[in-house]
C-alpha cells in the first residue's frame, strides 16, 4: 500500500546505518559550500532505500561521508555498529573492502578479466575465501550462469552491470551502495537491475542504498528519502512513481 510523503522520519528499529548531526562543508573563507547541513538518518536493515533530490542537494556527498570517502566536518556515521567517523584511513580501507559493496553507474569492471574473475576480484585482493554457496546464489539471482567465462566487452551493458551487482553482493556486505546504477542502461536492462536489487533484498536479506534521479527506479524501493539543500526534506514509504513525483514537487 502506498503511503504519503512525511517531513518527519519514522523510527527504524535495528538500522544498519546510523547518521547523526552530519555536516560537510567544502572550501574555506568566502568559498564555503555547506553540502550537508545536519543530517539525521537511519537506514533500515534488509531494505532497499532510495536517496533522491535535485542536483547539488548533497546525495553523493552523503554517500561519500557514510563510507568514509569524504571526511565529515562534524557528526557521526555508524555502519553495523562500527563508527566510521572516528576511523583512521587504514581502518576505512578495510571497512570498505570487507563490509561495503559498491555499484557505480559506469560498471567499473576490469576488461582483461572474465565475469567470474571480476565478481571474485575483491575477495582475491583481500585474500579471502569465496563462499561457494553465496557465489552460486548471487550468480543465479543475477541471471549470469552462462556468461561467467565472458569478458566485459563480450557482454551487453545490462549484463556488465549484473556482473558489477554480483561483485558488490558476493561478500555478503553489511550494506551495498548503488550510485545511479541504471543511469547508463536502456529501459529493459534497467528493469533487470532493479529487479535484481529488489530480489537481493527480499531473498538474500541484503541492505541496499541507491541514489537515483529516476522516479521509476525509486518506485522499486521500500523507502525514498528526499534531500534538498543538504538537509532531509522527508520520506516516502512504499513509493509509487506518482507518489515519488508528488514528493519531489512538494519539496519545491
Ligand atoms: N569536492 C567538492 N568541492 C567543493 N564543493 C563540492 C565538492 N563536492 C560537492 N560539492 C558541492 O556540494 C554540494 C552537494 O554536491 P553533491 O555532489 O553531493 O550533490 P548531488 O545531490 O549528488 O548532485 P548530483 O545529483 O548532481 O550528482 C554542491 O553544491 C556541490 O557543488
Automatic annotation (TrEMBL):
Q: Could you tell me which InterPro entries the record lists for this protein?
A: AAA+_ATPase, ABC_transporter-like_ATP-bd, ABC_transpr_LolD-like, MacB-like_ATP-bd, P-loop_NTPase
In what residue span(s) does the ABC transporter domain sit? 17-248
The molecular function GO annotations come to:
ATP binding
Name the UniProt key words of this record, in alphabetical order: ATP-binding, Nucleotide-binding, Transport
Q: Which Gene3D superfamilies match?
A: P-loop containing nucleotide triphosphate hydrolases (3.40.50.300)
Instruction: Spell out the PROSITE patterns in the cross-references.
Output: ABC_TRANSPORTER_2
PANTHER family recorded: ABC TRANSPORTER RELATED, IMPORT ATP-BINDING PROTEIN
Q: What is this protein called?
A: ABC transporter ATP-binding protein
Amino acid at each position: 500500500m502506498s503511503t504519503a510523503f512525511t517531513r518527519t522520519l519514522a523510527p527504524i528499529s535495528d538500522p544498519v546505518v546510523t547518521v547523526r548531526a552530519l555536516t560537510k562543508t567544502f572550501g574555506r573563507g568566502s568559498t564555503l559550500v555547506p553540502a550537508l547541513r545536519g543530517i539525521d538518518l537511519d537506514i533500515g536493515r534488509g531494505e532497499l532505500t532510495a536517496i533522491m533530490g535535485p542536483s547539488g542537494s548533497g546525495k553523493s556527498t552523503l554517500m561519500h561521508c557514510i563510507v568514509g570517502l569524504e571526511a565529515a566536518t562534524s557528526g557521526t556515521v555508524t555502519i553495523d555498529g562500527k563508527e566510521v567517523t572516528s576511523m583512521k584511513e587504514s581502518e576505512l580501507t578495510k571497512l570498505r573492502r570487507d563490509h561495503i559493496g559498491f555499484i557505480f553507474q559506469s560498471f567499473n569492471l576490469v576488461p582483461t578479466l572474465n565475469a567470474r574473475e571480476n565478481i571474485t576480484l575483491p575477495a582475491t585482493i583481500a585474500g579471502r575465501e569465496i563462499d561457494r554457496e553465496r557465489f552460486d546464489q548471487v550468480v543465479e539471482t543475477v541471471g549470469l550462469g552462462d556468461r561467467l567465462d565472458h569478458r566485459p566487452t563480450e557482454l551487453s551493458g545490462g549484463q556488465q552491470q549484473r556482473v558489477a551487482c554480483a561483485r558488490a553482493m558476493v561478500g555478503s556486505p553489511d550494506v551495498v551502495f548503488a550510485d545511479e546504477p541504471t543511469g547508463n542502461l536502456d529501459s529493459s536492462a534497467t528493469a533487470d537491475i532493479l529487479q535484481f536489487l529488489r530480489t537481493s533484498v527480499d531473498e538474500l536479506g541484503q541492505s541496499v542504498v541507491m541514489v537515483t534521479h529516476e522516479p521509476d527506479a525509486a518506485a522499486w524501493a521500500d523507502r525514498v528519502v528526499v534531500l534538498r539543500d543538504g538537509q532531509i526534506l522527508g520520506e516516502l514509504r512504499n513509493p509509487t512513481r506518482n507518489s515519488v513525483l508528488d514528493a519531489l514537487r512538494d519539496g519545491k
